[in-house]
Amino acid sequence: MKPPAAGAALVVDGLDLRFGAVQALSELSFDVRSGELFAVIGPNGAGKSSLFNLLSRTYHPTRGRITYFGRDLLALRAHQLAGAGIARTFQNLGLFGPLTALDNVVIGRTSLGRSGIVSSGLRLPRARREDREHRAAALEALRTVGAADVADRPVGLLPYGVQKRVEIARALAMQPKLLLLDEPVAGMSRDERSSIAELVGRLNRERGITTMLVEHDMGVVMGLATRVLVLDFGRPVAIGTPAEIQANPEVIRAYLGETAELSR
Amino acid sequence: MRTFGQLLFAGIALGAVYALVAVGFTVIFRASRIINFAQGQMLALGAFFTSWLVIDEGMPFWAALVLGLAATAALGLVFQWGVLRFAVGKPEFTIVMLTLGLASVLQAVIPTIWGSYPRANGDPWGHSAAHAGGLAFDWVQIWAIIAALVALGAFFVFNRYSRYGLAMRVAASDQEAAVAVGVPLRRIFGLAWGLAGLVACLGGVFLAGYPNSLDPTISNGALLAFPAIILGGIDSTTGAVVGGFGIGIIQELVAGYQPQDASWLGHNFYIAAPYIVMILVLLVRPYGLFGSRPAERL
């Protein structure tokens, strides 16, 4: 295996994904540097979700390699990613509706480290103390995202924007080395969007969590990201800083032109 | 006529068996939101296998029971690993149909191996009874209550105090999100099916005890658990147990009093009584006594 670039959290190398005759992704290579906030944008059907599903091990690539902090990501099963330090949020929320907000976050917590969600067996005193620590950490995560006041409410009954905060708190409680956010502001009002964007940016800056986000909302991406990858028809069109991307004529043709027209 | 005390005891014993059968449905439902239509056939397989070991192979009953439990749990595991594993993430309807397929296969296999005539259950109690306070307590009923209490108690401790219980709830709520927080779905589903097999076998062996006998129609015994599940609430193990005992007691009391006090209802009204309770519960409390209403934003 070729040694990863220094400081790379994620190295994607020659990734191909094909479903029958449909080439969802082709020849995709890029790397995400440790600590950066990396955004992937592109029109509908560009391959953003496919890429996300590859990274969360829902799909397996037809060809190519993914290296995560020097490890072969493709050797891990989907449920092992949490233990490896990869946390994600879902485009349509991935919360456990009947459980309280706090329990949802605690679950993210208990997937941590050596104990794991299922391996600790019966809750003997030591494990119970560990549980208390997990609850404290979960509450702290809820505080960080500004949702501590709803800790004891069933999460399914909370407003969408608050649920998204709880989901981010859960990801945070997993102490991630890599945070994957799948369209975190989709379906939100303008106010909710900017406050979630502010939160994502703050977590990345203050905690140094390497963050990769797939997003449709150009305003959010350009204001947040350190670098941006633009996909179109499963191929990389450009990669660079937001300023570089905004000035790239190919990007404007593939994506910005379209949105500019749509948003007129 | 049997006295109230006698009827109540019989009701509790019958309820213990119903509770075991009901918990089998509940454990799978809680982990994967599907109803296992092969639960009755798993129950039959456990009872037949145990009976075969005792009657045909001459094994002591308790040893045979342990092997029967192991075999039925293994059947659940094998079905999960060999078949359902490939359907993870498929619509629930697909998985329910697969359980119906398993039910059909087992329904055909059991009489092929062991014949379709009634056979002895193989339990050591037969019709023997203990007498106290002017009442007769059939040993098979006493043991049914003991076995159910031990099994259900162990199951509760496991559910409440091990993280597997939480992992099952999480898996049932959202599989994709469960995987993302590190829940190994296959292991969780395998565990649920294994546990369902255990309680199925136990329920089957006691359902086939005196005054019943063992024949392939015992798989219908699972249908008897439906009123219990509906009464208790399908996603609640507490509900399954309370529902099981409740339905058992109602059925025995109706069987004891109704032929005299309301003879116009006919001879076999006690068979219909649990289903009448079920229909009433569905009308008044569709989620059962302990079931959870789905939490939804309005």
Q: What is the arithmetic mean of pLDDT of chain A?
A: 86
- Rounded to an integer in angstroms, the radius of gyration calculated over CA atoms of chain B is 19 Å
Task: Give the end-to-end Cα distance of chain B, rounded to a whole number of Å.
Answer: 55 Å
**What's the pLDDT, averaged over the residues of chain B?**
88
How do the strands of the widest beta sheet of chain A line up side by side?
6-7-8-3-9-10
Number of beta-strand segments of chain A? 10
Total beta strands of chain B: 2
Report the oligomer: heterodimer
Our count of helices of chain A gives 10
Query: Portion of residues in helices of chain B?
Result: 55-70%
Which runs of chain B of at least 5 residues are low in confidence (pLDDT < 50)?
Answer: none
Shape of chain B: globular
Structural class given helices, strands, pairing of chain A?
alpha/beta
Describe it.
- The complex is a heterodimer of chains A (264) and B (298).
- Chain A is built from 10 helices and 10 strands.
- Chain A has helices spanning 48-55, 81-84, 101-110, 116-119, 125-144, 160-173, 190-207, 218-224, 242-247, 249-263; strands at 8-19, 22-33, 37-41, 63-68, 71-72, 86-89, 178-182, 210-214, 227-232, 235-240.
- Chain A is globular.
- Chain B is an all-alpha fold.
- Helices cover 69% and strands 3% of the residues of chain B.
- Chain B has a two-stranded antiparallel ribbon.
- Chain A binds chain B through residues 56, 58, 77-83, 87-88, 90, 94-99, 107-108, 110-111, 116-123, 154, 156-160, 170, 174, and chain B through 157, 161-164, 166-167, 169-170, 173-174, 176-185, 187-188, 292, 294-297.
